[in-house]
Amino acid sequence: MADAVFIPPKDLCAYLNEAEEHELMVRQGRNVNDPPRLGLRKRRRDITPPEELAPKRERMFDDDKDRVLEQMEQDDSSFKANSILESDSD
């Protein structure tokens, strides 16, 4: 950065005064933003449409779901079998 930046003293003072006023308002918890104009109303937001999956993506999700369900069944059956064997040995 070889070029120097020059801000006239009058402008610098104005910027600093505005920043100090803003800081004071923030510290005091006053509303920093401008109040809404009278008669101004927010526009109603459109409803977001439900997400539609492409058939290929839907098939991938179904395959994943089936794989997880199958894994859960295998895990449950092995758990039940082990618990039965342990109770028989007592």
Helices and strands in order:
Layout: H1 9-28, H2 55-89
What's this entry about, in short?
This protein has helices spanning 9-28, 55-89.
Main features:
90 residues; 61% helix
Structure overview:
This protein has 90 residues and is an all-alpha fold. Helices cover 61% and strands 0% of the residues. The longest helix is centred in the C-terminal third of the chain and has 35 residues, at 55-89. It is elongated.
Number of strands: 0
Strand % is under 5%
Structural class: mainly alpha
N/C terminus separation: 82 Å
Rounded mean pLDDT score: 80
Query: How would a textbook summarize the main sheet?
Result: none
- How large is the radius of gyration? 33 Å
Q: What is the count of helical runs?
A: 2
Shape: elongated
Oligomer: single chain
Q: Can you write the helix and strand succession as a string?
A: HH
Q: Which blocks of ≥5 consecutive residues have pLDDT under 50? A: none
Helical proportion? Answer: 55-70%
